[in-house]
Amino acid sequence: MNLLSVMPGDSFLHRLNPVTKLAAAFLYGIGCILCDSIAMEVVFILLMLLISASAGLLPRALALTRRLLVLGLFMFVIQLLFVRTGAPLLSLGGVTLVTTGGLRSALLLSLRVVATMLPLMLFFAVTQMNDLCNALVKRLHLPYRYAFIITTAFRFVPLFSSEFAEIQDAQRARGVDFETKNLVRKVKLVAPLCVPLLVSSLKKVNSSAISAELRGFEMRGRESGYKEYPFGKNDALALALLVLMVALCAALL
Amino acid sequence: MISIDNVTFRYQNQRGDEAALKNVSLTVEDGEFLGVIGTSGAGKTTLALAMCGVVPHEFKGDFYGAVLVDGEDTVEHAPSHFARKVGEVFQDIDSQMVASVVEDEILFGMENFGLPHEEIGARLDRVLREMGIEALRERSIASLSGGQKQKVAIAATLALEPRILVLDEPTGELDPESSREIFALLRRLCEEKGITVVIVEQKIKLLCEYAKRLIVLERGEMRFDGAPREVIAHVDTFKSLGINIPPVAELSAILREGGAYAGDVALTLPEAERMAREAMA
Predict the structure, then answer these.
(1) Is the pLDDT of residue A36 over 60?
(2) pLDDT tens for each residue of A123-161
(3) pLDDT for position A88
(4) What are the tens digits of pLDDT across the range B93-148?
């Protein structure tokens, strides 16, 4: 499953203005960062899973949560071993390994990573990058060149991912076995593939830029777009709720 | 009109001293349907890229001679200057896509040109219909087959209504029926709207049928230039170059060599039938 590709739909989330979706994802993330309660972080994650389910994105959200939990686990271990506040919880040979403060900090940070990243990742599932680009230009009056560069960078991520998969498949066809659990061996197998990926990616980016230039990229103005991206009542409602959420999180600090 | 005057081009990082194009001179008149053939590495793509200024602006190297598009030198102007005149479809279809959805890909150029809203809508509907891809309108480009992507790329270029169309193997991933449809559409655009079509292709049979003129490149040099029937008549040269020509043309050469047939080279089945009757008479 490509975790950054768009999943078409007609839900409340899908119908929001792209700029609202982006702002909402950031506001939700800010709320999660401001929040200082483990229980609330869990609530934020569950709430986001519920919101995803309403847009038919629960499988994607669960897959993302699983991956983010791996990242969270990494943060958990670091925090657990390095935060020394609170009472000792686990000692070995007179050396305190884990403290209550370390455990709380580790849990809070790892859950916060998941809660903050989840809405941003789901943003990609409900937003076409082209729509985001046009909406940024039309609504926020961002220069088209910059909006195009930002959104194209995101658009290329799944392309590079499938390119990498193709390169891997080509190697598999020649007998390379990537399914090893030895991390060092895996890195040794994958690292050489970065060169062909880089070469083909640079070629693709260059050709794409030439193609854009030949189709009048330089002539684009703010009013050039075909589609309109008006802000509606739903956008106002979504933003109001999220601003309220951030304000509550800030007040509880 | 495209005027190519004694053009030589050597890519900056090209191994060896061999140039991609060597002293190529050619004039493509308005409304002409020109086919470009040659073996791989013959310079076909370089020639196509030179026609809109991508060579030498985007691919650095030593460029000699001049390419004039409607009298304007491609060296003196950036490729974007020719965007309204020349539409180009690249060989690598994936690389030329700038959007994620079919509709957005076709809209891209028209939006850049700042066309009126109604005009954009009308052109969008028309090219989707002409290319037979109405059903793909909302589809993600990543989910399309190679042939479907080629149709989208051609549609995106046609929507800009350029006066000159340069297409580099635009039917490479299409089935024979779809390839024929594309060629027929290009021929129609050429005849009805006076659009100049330059098409680099390996499907020589189709080129012989639809193009009014063929050029053959070999190792960067122009080997032949003329009407398809005149060019294809050099059967032995094509054989030595490893270029497959229509079997009926090969048959006419054999019959002519044996003295059983004295007419023109046959390019189509009806012509082959006439040739066979004449040979048997």
Answers:
(1) yes
(2) 999 999 999 999 999 999 999 999 999 998 888 887 788
(3) 87
(4) 888 899 989 999 999 999 999 999 999 999 999 999 999 999 999 999 988 988 89
The residue type of B277 is R
Q: Which residues of B touch A (CB under 8 A)?
A: 52, 54, 58, 78-80, 82-84, 86-88, 90, 92, 94-101, 104, 107-114, 117, 120-121, 124, 138, 140, 142, 156-157, 160
Q: Are residues B40 and B118 in the same domain?
A: no
Angle at B161 between CA B157 and CA B166, to 5 degrees: 50
CATH of the domain at B76: 3.40.50.300
Residue B255 corresponds to which tokens in the numbers above? 């019959």
What is the pLDDT at residue B260?
83
Same domain, B54 and B107: no
A 10 A CB-CB count for B279 gives 18
Which residues from A are below 8 Å from B when comparing CB atoms? 5-6, 8, 128-131, 152, 155, 158-159, 162, 203-204, 206-208, 210-221, 223-227
Are residues B110 and B147 both part of a single domain?
yes
* pLDDT tops 60 at residue B12: yes
Smallest CA–CA distance, residue B102 to chain A, in Å, is: 11
Q: For residue range B13-52, list pLDDT tens digits in order.
A: 776 678 999 999 999 999 999 999 999 889 999 999 999 9
Query: What is the value of ipTM here, to two decimals?
Result: 0.85
Assigned domain for B91 exists: no
In this prediction, residue B257 has a pLDDT band, given cuts at 50, 70 and 90, of confident
Closest CA to B88 of B20, B164, B25: B164
Residue A20 dihedral angles phi and psi, to the nearest 5°: -60, -45
Q: How far apart are CA A100 and CA A79, in angstroms?
A: 11
The verdict on residue B176 lying in a domain is yes
Q: What percent of chain A lies above the pLDDT cut of 70?
A: 99
- What residues pair up with B165 in beta bridges, in sequence order? B87, B197
Q: Are strands B72-73 and A95-99 parallel, antiparallel or unpaired?
A: unpaired
Residue range of the domain that includes B112 = 97-161
How many domains does chain B fold into?
Answer: 3
Q: Does residue B76 lie in a domain region?
A: yes
Neighboring chain B residues of A162 at a CB cutoff of 8 Å: 142
Say whether both B75 and B2 belong to one domain: yes
Cα distance between residue A212 and residue B109, in whole Å: 8
Per CB-CB distance under 8 Å, the chain A contacts of B104 are 128, 130-131
